Description:
Layout: H1 3-19, E1 23-28, E2 44-51, H2 60-71, E3 79-86
Parallel strand pairs: 2-3
Antiparallel strand pairs: 1-2
Amino acid sequence: MSVHADRVAVIKQKLEQAFSPTFLDVVDDSEKHKNHPGHDGHAGHYTIVIAADCFINKSRIEVHREIYACLGEMIPGEIHAICIQLK
Length: 87
């Protein structure tokens, strides 16, 4: 398993524990960023697609802040960039 695949598993675990999502997909986009930080084992680029009941009636900014807080210890050492898509 690659460094980034391990990180995807950790990201999923953290998000599942924090938000009990009804839908969750985490995609490693690091390969799309060759010659940019996040490639070859450095901090990666990830897309998170998530839906959770706890996000109902919250603004997009509130949800993004909660996700960044959940993953905060991984930023910037393991996560360079996150694209968050809410379902």
